[in-house]
Amino acid sequence: MRLSLILGAALSALVLALAALSYLWTPGDVTAMDIANRMKPPGAAGLLGTDHFGRDMLSMIMVGARVSIAVALVAVGIGMGLGVPLGLAAAARRGGWLDELIMRGNDLIFAFPSLVIAILITAVFGPGAINAIIAIGIFNIPVFARVARGAALPLWQREFILAARVAGKSRAHISVEHILPNIANLLVVQGTIQFSLAILAEAGLSYVGLGAQPPLPSWGRMLADAQTLVAVAPHLALVPGLAIILTVLGLNLLGDGLRDLLDPRLRRVRT
After folding, report:
1. Structural domain boundaries of the chain?
2. 3 state DSSP class of 121
């Protein structure tokens, strides 16, 4: 547990630090092309080499991290901000019309993956980072709703909840004051997992041209640009690919470590 938590936190902190640093400094200008130094390998013209336009790859990775984190953060925030209240409301009215309405709505959204939702949105509003955020955020809503509902349902049978109901507290009051604090650890872990999945989704949407648009760098579009040049300059695909792998790995390890740390049942097993 401790090793996965430390390693996950270290990898995640590294990505966050690179993204934050890109606001202040990058080794090169990500919008400036230098055709004379195009597709240089790592070390020849920069720590990670240059791309097919002669742009510094390290700078592209740093700004791309900023884009991926921003999209994932807002998308997960949308999913959690709307999904958790819906899940709590469904659990509070288990078996009622509100519960059925919320859960059937979740099933409807689950029938359309984030890529399909993004295609529908971009068909109307055009491609871009904002539309990618909306698509990923919509897909995250039923995830958090199901997690919140599933974790809240057993708590409604506990003695302290029954005591609160006898005291005259409303279901909404109980959900916010008693249920939510007791499932917060699970939501934090799920949020970490969804954050890593949102980064993957953003990279996938950018790969097919539905995410962040040029000249803004994106890890997914860097992979798309490199797919026909792998034999000539393999670092064009390896660098953004490794960035995605290490970021997702770090977040998953962080989520596993937080789960082990915050779950009281696992703490009892270890002791």
Report:
1. 2-15+55-270
2. helix
Provide the 3-class DSSP secondary structure of residue 56: strand
b (16+ CB within 10 A) / e for 75-112: bbebbbebbbbbbbbbbbeeeeeebeebbeebeebeee
| Cα–Cα distance measured from residue 107 to residue 143, given in angstroms and rounded to the nearest whole number | 10
Q: How far apart are CA 65 and CA 55, in angstroms?
A: 16
Q: What angle do CA 190, 270, 187 make, to 5 degrees?
A: 15
- Cα(20)–Cα(41) distance, rounded to whole angstroms? 26
Question: Per-residue pLDDT for the chain (271 aa), expressed as one digit of tens each?
Answer: 578 889 999 999 999 999 999 999 999 999 888 898 899 999 867 899 999 999 999 999 999 999 999 999 999 999 999 999 999 999 998 888 999 999 999 998 888 877 788 778 877 888 888 988 998 999 899 999 999 999 999 999 899 999 998 888 999 999 999 999 999 999 999 999 999 999 999 999 899 888 888 888 999 999 999 998 999 999 999 999 999 999 999 999 999 888 888 765 555 444 4
- Write down the pTM of the prediction: 0.91
d(CA 256, CA 260) in angstroms, rounded, equals 6
For 33-43, letters b (16+ CB in 10 Å) and e give ebeebbbbeee
Phi and psi torsions of 29, nearest 5° = -85, 120
Q: Which fold has domain 2-15+55-270?
A: MetI-like fold (1.10.3720)
Q: What phi and psi, each to the nearest 5 degrees, are found at residue 211?
A: -95, -140
Alpha helix stretches (DSSP H) within 167-217: 171-174, 180-207
